[in-house]
Recover the amino acids of this structure.
């Protein structure tokens, strides 16, 4: 009675073997699903890479457009605004000269009026 019959040992070993096979089966299923997930992630990465390349092309086009606009504005500044600034400076000089001339005449007139009143 002290010995366990061989049938019980076979049942215990069989149950342990079934559990090990079940664990291996679930491990295989997990590996298969992860393989599919990796494939899907590779596709997503390819699509995102293509999107990034498109965005880079768009930004390059925008940079080229802004560079052209900047060059156009600089050309306008040098060819149109510079002569206007020169003319404005010339007019300012003439205005200063005329205003100083009028100030001298007013001062002379004020002096003459005061002189006349004092006499």
């Amino acid at each position: 009675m002290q010995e366990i019959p061989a049938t019980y040992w076979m049942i215990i070993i069989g149950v342990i073997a079934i559990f090990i096979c079940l664990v291996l089966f679930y491990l295989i299923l997990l590996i298969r699903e992860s393989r599919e997930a990796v494939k899907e992630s590779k596709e997503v990465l390819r699509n995102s890479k293509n999107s990034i390349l498109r965005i880079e092309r768009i930004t390059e086009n925008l940079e080229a457009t802004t560079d052209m606009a900047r060059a156009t504005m600089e050309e306008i500044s040098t060819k149109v605004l510079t002569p206007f600034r020169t003319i404005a400076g010339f007019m300012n000089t003439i205005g200063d000269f005329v205003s100083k001339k009028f100030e001298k005449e007013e001062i002379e007139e004020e002096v003459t009026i005061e002189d006349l009143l004092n006499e």
